[in-house]
Specification:
This protein is of the alpha/beta class and 255 residues long. It has seven helices and eight strands, in the order E-H-E-H-E-E-H-E-H-E-H-E-H-E-H. The protein has one domain: P-loop containing nucleotide triphosphate hydrolases (Rossmann fold, 3-Layer(aba) Sandwich), CATH 3.40.50. 38% of the residues lie in helices and 16% in strands. Helix 3 packs across helix 4.
Amino acid sequence: MATSPWLVMAGKGGVGTTTVTALLAEEAGLQGLSTLVVDGNLGSPGLHRSFGQLDGHPGMRSLTERGRKPEELLLAAGHNVWLMPAGMPEYKDAVLDQGGRAGVLRRARSLFDRFDMVLLDAGSTLESIVPTLQLDPRGVCLVLQPERTAMAGAYALVKVLRDEAPNLATVPILNRTPVDRAEAVQAAMIGATVRFLGTRMAHASHIPRLPQLDGGSVSSPLTLGHMQTDETADEAAAAVRQILNRLTSQRRASA
């Protein structure tokens, strides 16, 4: 059975696509799914740091080199989790336009069927997002944050997805969102999409704000397993588990 990727994206930078991708991958691995995580944000790589990986490992940018094979780029990133990084600065100029990005993504696509789950951080710019839509994705995880510019960006991205991939399932994720604000934020987004696009957004899941997840480094990876457990961390873990179950249920239903 072919494995199509879930694309994790946002309409504005800084809302947490990298964090959400890393947490979902961790949970997928814990649930026994062999999981590939792909840093498709070729313009601003950083997903590898979320898994405690050092800079310097070649990534997808290096697929422009003659003889470079996608499987050479994989890094073990946790229990049942493998990472394909974007690549480091020495390859910065190798992939600039959408055609070049689409080309290296197609080469990376050759590995997807080896895994039960593929999660791809598509970033927050059209330059990084549009080429990923050519990968026959299973659906989109649309990361939102309860502030004005992030919501406006998400709304604009919904319009793009409606035009570019109208049949693509979209799972909204309210990141860094207190429980008492989640319903109001979701109602505003649903109202806007219904009124102006004639599209009703699906019910959103939400992940509470965790200060520990606002940054990541080699010594402090962005995973719940590396944190001290408290009530908020437990809520976040439960939320991630619920989102992952939502994705896998939809994956099975669509297969």
